[in-house]
Specification:
Layout (H helix, E strand, L loop, with lengths): L2 E7 L6 E12 L2 E9 L5 E10 L4 E8 L2 E7 L3 E6 L6 E6 L3 E4 L3 H10 L8 E9 L4 E17 L6 E10 L5 E7 L2 E5 L2 E6 L8
Parallel strand pairs: 9-10
Antiparallel strand pairs: 1-2, 1-15, 2-3, 3-4, 4-5, 5-6, 6-7, 7-8, 10-11, 11-12, 12-13, 13-14, 14-15
Protein name: Glycolipid-binding domain-containing protein
């Protein structure tokens, strides 16, 4: 069960935003990721609880940020309920999309797991619903993912496969790189792996 923490920062000007402390695990029915986010003062700012089925579809999502809450799942596309900080109003949403995304590194692992692009196979298009702090307002976006390389790195236990993806925002054309090893993000815009207690899990 990988456990560690990421540092989070603004991908444009590199302003530190805080940390995300996580643990995640694969199992016979899929993958689960749980985390707590902290600001630069060490104060709790939110949480992520994401469960995927064996095909990489989100069967349970719960996000908290600034007293806002989102619960969602893959159902007739993706469906969610967003609750305001007072807890008196809840709005439902449904979009014909494939999965969710957001600020957490969990969503990069989840999207890669859902798409599973093959090296040299070209880009795969995906429609996602994004929820980003501080208010978790939904936004639908389209991306393409291409797996550029899979590079083995020797370790004391077994070779670690590092996958390099090119992710393209299909609205703006902006491209960026995402580097994953199993169910851990090694590097991505605004995300840096700072500690990892155990090796990444590998998906079957």
């Amino acid at each position: 069960m990988p456990r560690g923490h990421y540092s989070l920062y603004d991908p444009h000007d590199h302003t530190p935003l805080g940390e995300e402390h996580f643990h995640c695990a694969t199992g016979p029915s899929g993958w689960r990721y749980v985390s707590q986010t902290l600001n630069t003062a060490g104060e709790h700012t939110g949480s992520v609880d994401l469960t995927l089925d064996e095909l990489g579809r989100p069967i349970r999502l719960e996000l908290h940020a600034s007293a806002w809450q989102v619960r969602g799942a893959a159902l007739d596309g993706v469906t969610w309920v967003r609750t305001d900080p007072t807890g008196t109003h809840a709005t439902e949403g449904n979009v014909p999309a494939h999965a969710f995304t957001g600020a957490s590194p969990a969503f990069l692992v989840a999207t890669a797991r859902l798409l599973r692009p093959a090296p040299g196979a070209g880009a795969t298009r995906v429609r996602l619903v994004a929820f980003t702090p501080p208010v978790l307002a939904p936004r639908t976006l389209d991306q393409s993912w291409a797996l550029l390389s899979s590079t083995p790195h020797a370790t004391d236990i077994a070779p670690l496969i590092a996958d390099a993806y090119q992710v393209t925002d299909l609205e703006t054309g902006e491209q960026h790189a995402v580097h994953l090893a199993g169910d851990v993000v090694l590097a991505a815009p605004g995300i840096e792996l700072e500690s990892l207690d155990t090796p990444p899990s590998t998906f079957s």
